[in-house]
Amino acid sequence: MARLFPILDLSSFEQDPAARAMFLRDLRYAARDVGFFYLDGHGISLDEIERLFELSRQFFDLPVQEKQRIEMVNSSQFRGYTRVAGERTRGQADWREQLDFGIERDPVPQNGRQPAWTRLHGPNQWPQALPQLRPVILDWQVRVAEVAIRLLKAFALSLEQPEDVFEPIYGEGANHRMKIVRYPGREQTDDDQGVGAHKDGGFLTLLLQDNVGGLQVEYDGKWVDVEPVPGTLVVNIGELLELASDGYLRATLHRVVTPSRGAERYSVPFFFGARLDATIPLLNLPEELAAEAKGPASDPANPLFRDVGVNVLKSRLRSHPDVAERHYPDLLKAS
Ligand SMILES: O=C(O)CCC(=O)C(=O)O
Ligand SMILES: [Fe+2]
């Protein structure tokens, strides 16, 4: 049976013109028809992958008090630890624990005149009890951001745009977020919802999953398993790339089902986003592609803004109401 989610080899994009043309064609179909595919040939080694999983396991094995010392609610940048059921998707608790990171930088001093999203810049929270985690995460951020940029260039070409058409969104300080995630097994909950059905809000998501399985994508009205393929990253399109391509590229609904009894699942989603001060470009597609573009999906419950910072802050406030209440009460009052 043909695979619904193809495996694309990014290294063939950097080879001879024939291999490159084939890669671009496959990429366009994969991203348009299902919006999900596996990426191989990305240059990240199995050792790097294993090291990251090993440190994730060590982090989640820490005593709960250690994890709570860096709870996300301490951070106006939405960085840090979220306990099981601490995050919500469409109002329902997600049965997973996670540690969120963004770009490590100083906060922007506030004088009340900057846009609210400037408060999203700032430091991460690192676990004191596991100092080895920090260099591994910082390294992963660099490695995967590079892959995302190579891939965005390929997306641009596959849409018959100049290779650097997305440069304004990632040049000089792209913005991204990532997290390490643990889904506990069925013996700890009756709930199926590891994470509820959603689309990703950024540009591109590059996900590392272990070999347990549970990620599902909605295709043709059914939920289809994204089986683990060792060494690959699972790539999916975010809503802002869908918006930029006038719906030619699809942001697809996906979810994670709670692992079976006695199992647990680890994953590392990396959300490549645009600079917070960017405005999403609207691509001018050639006629034959424009004819196939469906227009971005519009969901009245989830309006999309072309101003990236506004969009990112909107979705962070919605996912983490405790952070919103502690650090953004001014915005909650206004809305
Ligand atoms: O853990 C996964 O496999 C996917 C998680 C996910 O979709 C997300 O965090 O946006
Ligand atoms: Fe997702």
TrEMBL record:
Enzyme class, spelled out: oxidoreductase
EC assignment: 1.13.12.19, 1.14.20.7
Pfam families: 2OG-FeII_Oxy, DIOX_N
Keyword terms, alphabetized: Dioxygenase, Ethylene biosynthesis, Iron, Metal-binding, Oxidoreductase
Family annotation (InterPro entries): DIOX_N, IPNS-like_FE2OG_OXY, IPNS-like_sf, Iron_ascorbate_oxido_reductase, Oxoglu/Fe-dep_dioxygenase_dom
SUPFAM superfamilies named among the record's database cross-references: Clavaminate synthase-like
Cofactor: Fe(2+)
Catalysed reaction, written as an equation: L-arginine + 2-oxoglutarate + O2 = guanidine + L-glutamate 5-semialdehyde + succinate + CO2; 2-oxoglutarate + O2 + 2 H(+) = ethene + 3 CO2 + H2O
Domain Fe2OG dioxygenase: start-end pairs: 173-274
Superkingdom of the source species: Bacteria
Organism: Aquamicrobium defluvii
Keyword Iron set for record: yes
Sample GO molecular function, one term: 2-oxoglutarate oxygenase/decarboxylase (ethylene-forming) activity
The family this protein is said to belong to: Belongs to the iron/ascorbate-dependent oxidoreductase family.
Pathway info: Alkene biosynthesis; ethylene biosynthesis via 2-oxoglutarate
Protein name, UniProt field: 2-oxoglutarate-dependent ethylene/succinate-forming enzyme
GO process terms (BP): ethylene biosynthetic process
